[in-house]
Amino acid sequence: MDLISEFNRKLENAFGFTLHKYQEAVARELIDQLEHGERFITVSMPTGSGKTVLEMLTAEYLLSKGYRRILVLEPTRFLCDQMHSRWKQLVETGKEYEGNCWSFLKNYKVVISTPQTALKCVSTLQGEFDGVIIDEVHHAITGKYYNELIAELRPKVVVGFTALLPSKKAYRASVSKIGKVVGELKLLHYDFQKLISIDSQFNPPKALVDIFDSELDERERGVYDLLYFGRLPGEVRIIYFLERTFSRYGKKAFCESFFRAIEKGKIPKSKYADEISDFCRSEQLSHKARALLDILTVYNPKETPKLRPIIVFTSRKATAYEFKDAIIRELDVPSNKVEVLTSDLSKEQRKELISRAKKGDVYIIISTLVGEEGVDIPEAGVLVMTDVPKSPLRFYQRLGRLIRVSSPMNTKVFVITMTPKTEEYRDLSEAVWNLYREGVDVSYILLNLEEKLTTQKLLDYIKETTKMLNSKWASYMLLTQGDKPKDPVEYYLSALKSNEKFKEIIKQRFGELSDEEFEKWTFMVTTIFFLRAWSDDIKRAMKEVEKILNKGKVVGDFDKLIKDDRLFYFYDPEGLSDMVFMELERLRKYCKENQKTFCENVFFRFDRKGFLRLFTNIFPIENINDILKELRQRVSKKERIFGDIYVSISYNPSSKAIIANTHFSVFDGEVYLRLEPQFNYYNFRDDSKLKEKKLELIKLNVKDICYRAMEKYFETYVKN
User: Fold this and answer.
1) What letter does residue 548 receive in the DSSP assignment?
2) How far apart are CA 426 and CA 449, in angstroms?
3) Which residues form the Helicase ATP-binding domain (predicted)?
4) Helix (H) or strand (E) holding 221
5) What is the pLDDT of residues 295-325, one digit of tens each?
6) What confidence tens digit (pLDDT) does each residue in 401-410 have?
7) By the 8 A CB rule, do 614 and 491 touch?
8) What pLDDT score does 372 carry?
């Protein structure tokens, strides 16, 4: 029995199907090229033609020829998961994308990984993998990780698979490092016509989709982080707008909006504003322009006339003109072959542009909103959407320039550029689902959202920070502001005291106050809930201050990751115990002034979410056992000194908050004080699998805070 017959038998047993006639033909040519000594082969086949089973067959062939181990490279973690679930049914297969290198060390015959992770583990791979299979190999064109990895591994054979049809010239230029290791590229190209000539049963799709990541470089990430984490001073809504503009439209459009905001006084002068101004004066291309150049290297209208015209959509004029300049300068496309379609053109100029495009004289049309409707743009071979409108109507109007397919042989390409770890991927998901609910066929749009969202950016940042700090957690303020205030209590109270609206309300209620009296009432309003009921203006003023202290999209991402059981938190016992100690001091002073020996406060609460963030320590959920262990040890020691503190727990489903109530007493030889602090923990999922561990952590955290406050009190007021 030959290899293909044996492979068909395995396929039948594992999946209930065998290779199609055209797949067998491709497999035989691929094996023939390997038999004749080709070491660097790429198979180009249309989406939906079943490349995955051919990748599996390639691995089977190489292992049958004595190759020790095969490394399969996928561009994303999502595809690693997806492909691993299939491969493991046919051959013993490991999966590696977390960077711990376990699957590499376990001697699986086949390991599926991302190139980034394989590079991190490359020291363990030397001499291990003599065959490499690259799925979606077109991503290697602009992916430095692929070339660096192959240069390190030095395998005997590299076989790539792709749905795209890049020119040999583009491939040779981009994979030169791989070529130095395994020789010249051999491209086996099968388009729809060729597959149908082999197998008349082959049915090509009407459209295929490709997503190119428009990655931010190091300097762009620095600017984006100032917006995402809310570090740039300015109006909150303006910061949100600038963050969206930067990720969706790139540098030119962002800088245009940024300088306009400065002119209108929406962004005050600061070191961060100066940093962004310097960035805007630089000449570098935006991340969106760089991604578009990558796309036009793969889908090259100069070398492939049937792709013309390629239509590129963007919502900002500044971005459209940047695209045109970049294409002319970087890709050497004649200026009269690239046109921008905006409202700047008169009606006659638009008609003339469209007429030239229909004759084939225009290679690329870069269009803003004016081209989405009302202009008869010719049917495109490739549609590039460099930003995704949230409106399903606008999204569908753009798609309409692509999917007016007159023949099943006329397959089109829909390319989307998205900025990883920004809200763009969430926008795409919303647009696609809106279309789906309206009955539009979006089955060919495949998304891997989770690792592309800002939540993943935040999670990665937290893990990197905790690793750098050699800690299991990091403070919320350090993560968001880049610095932790020395005294969060003073930081918050000062912010309240500097708010004119808040000061006016306190003055109206109590009249003129000394600085000491004003600080006392500010503290009491913060911690005693019914005092805020004096006026809705008090609540609004506090909310306004807390919003300024907790701005940036990062706030919502923290909440989501906590709800999703990917992060959790506890309150800093040192910082929050200062607040508890301050209340004990206030009660003691009240007792002494009124010649009492007993005082209590049963209304003392930490229930404001925006305030509590200043004391929050965040950790990845996988660290919860280590943190519990440390808290148990610390609380156990203090219990032996001060006795047990009772903590009662309740859950508020409307606010999704755990409410931890406790009470304790102190006696300093002169006065007896009793305090009942309440601590709220928000974003708590009552159905969490980790519910019991989280509740234990909350109880320990509350006890730790109260014990620390008692220590401070006795150190101050009890003589040895």
Assistant:
1) H
2) 7
3) 32-183
4) helix 218-228
5) 898 888 888 787 888 889 898 999 999 999 9
6) 555 444 333 5
7) yes
8) 46
Q: What contacts 24+ positions apart, CB below 8 Å, involve 291-295?
A: 291/212, 291/213, 291/214, 291/215, 291/386, 291/417, 292/323, 292/326, 292/327, 292/384, 292/386, 292/417, 293/326, 293/327, 293/330, 293/331, 294/141, 294/142, 294/212, 295/212, 295/384, 295/415, 295/417
At the topology level of CATH, where does 3-204 sit?
A: Rossmann fold (3.40.50)
SS3 track for 249-298: HCHHHHHHHHHHHHHCCCCCCCHHHHHHHHHHHCCCCCHHHHHHHHHHHH
Radius of gyration in angstroms for the set of CA atoms belonging to the chain, rounded to a whole number: 31
CA 387/CA 285 separation, integer angstroms = 17
Kindly state the tokens that stand for 426.
């969430």
d(CA 554, CA 546): 14
Q: Is the dihedral of CA 11, 12, 13, 14 positive or negative?
A: positive
Domain ranges of the chain: 3-204, 205-447, 456-484+550-717
Instruction: Enter the pTM of the model.
Output: 0.67
Task: Give the C-alpha separation, 474 to 483, whole Å.
Answer: 11
**Amino acid of residue 205:** P
Identify any residues that bridge with 616 across adjacent strands, giving them in sequence order. Answer: 571
End-to-end CA, the chain? 91
Quick check: 674 and 641 in contact, CB under 8 A? no
The DSSP H or E segment spanning 664 is strand 657-667
The contacts of residue 279 (CB under 8 Å, 6+ apart) are: 219, 220, 223, 251, 255
Cβ-based neighbours of 311, under 8 Å, separated by 6 or more? 364, 365, 367, 371, 377, 380, 382, 383, 384, 401, 402
- CATH assignment of 205-447, among 3.10.20.30, 2.60.40.2310, 3.10.20.740, 3.40.50.300: 3.40.50.300
Query: Above 90 in pLDDT, residue 699?
Result: yes
Per-residue confidence (pLDDT) for residue 443, from 0 to 100 = 45
Q: Which residues lie below 8 Å from residue 574, measured CB to CB, with a gap of 6+?
A: 708
Of 115, 143, 141, nearest to 129 by C-alpha is 115
Q: What is the pLDDT of residue 433?
A: 61
What phi and psi, each to the nearest 5 degrees, are found at residue 482? 80, 0
Give the CA distances from residue 656 to residues 255, 616, 694, in Å, rounded to whole numbers and listed in that order: 40, 17, 14
Q: Which of 424, 423, 419 is nearest to 388 (CA)?
A: 424
3-state SS class at 161: strand
Token readout for 629 is 């262990």
Round to whole Å and give the CA distance between 165 and 298.
7
Helix (H) or strand (E) holding 245: helix 236-249
Mean pLDDT value across residues 451-477: 88
Residue 3 has pLDDT above 70, yes or no: yes
| DSSP code, position 529 | G
Percent residues over pLDDT 90 in the chain: 41
Omega before 378 within 30 of 0, i.e. cis? no
Q: Could you identify the residue written with the tokens 């609380």?
A: 635
What is the Cα–Cα distance from 480 to 616, expressed in whole angstroms? 11
